[in-house]
Amino acid sequence: MTTGSQEAAQLLAGAKRLVVKVGSSLVAGGEIFRHDGLAGDLASWPQSLVLISSGAVALGHRAAPQLSKTTLVERQALSAIGQPLLMARWEQALGGANARTAQVLLTPDVTDDPQRRDNARATLETVLQAGLLPVVNENDTVATDELRYGDNDRLAAQTAALVGADVLVLLSDVDGYFAADPNKDPGAAHWPVIPPAVLADPAAHVPEDKSALGTGGMRSKMEAARLAVEAGIPAIIASGRGRGPLKALARGEVRASVALLP
Hints:
Blueprint: H1 3-13, E1 17-22, H2 24-29, H3 38-44, E2 48-53, H4 56-63, H5 72-95, E3 101-106, H6 108-112, H7 114-129, E4 133-138, H8 152-163, E5 167-172, E6 177-178, E7 190-191, H9 196-200, H10 202-205, H11 218-230, E8 235-239, H12 245-250, E9 256-259
Parallel strand pairs: 1-2, 1-5, 2-4, 3-4, 5-8
Antiparallel strand pairs: 6-7, 8-9
């Protein structure tokens, strides 16, 4: 095992509650919904778990390609079209493993306002106690450019703090943090433990690299990791592709980058 995989495995072994976030690229690829993919891991995970799932806009655009993603109102419409499709994919994938889901849509004013934050926390706790898997997404249909999380990485960090998670896991199509974009530089160095200087100021160290399918990228994941660590929650950045990616991560079999508490 590499240092990053060892650290990730140790964090997951001691975690009683996880928040796991998946990006639009994973949702669009579809393999995470297979019984031997991430969905199978989520359905059989023994500890308490909350899922943050992007992908509503991407699925909405597939269903209504006549709408573009260039304006706020079109993105809101695509989200409205894609959100039920996204939930149907998760319900179908998890239902086959006798797991049920519950949809939770949040906006920043929910986690910023004390009363709404308490209400959201109570809802999530009740869903978890009932044995269901909460699937959380930003409520893009009513969010504005002035009042939105901006990407689900930050939402994942806020939700992890909201529910008192032990670990935040950010899954995407790359297996951690690299010194340069591995798609452009195959020899880019992989960092198993995120350097404190990078974590303290991601904007100064990580280039903007938004996904073509979503609004995030490595910088947003590092920002989310920073928020999580500030809340006392370590974070793991890893790939969500392949067979049983979360369980492989827990066994220390795959590469990852971790943001540890100081």
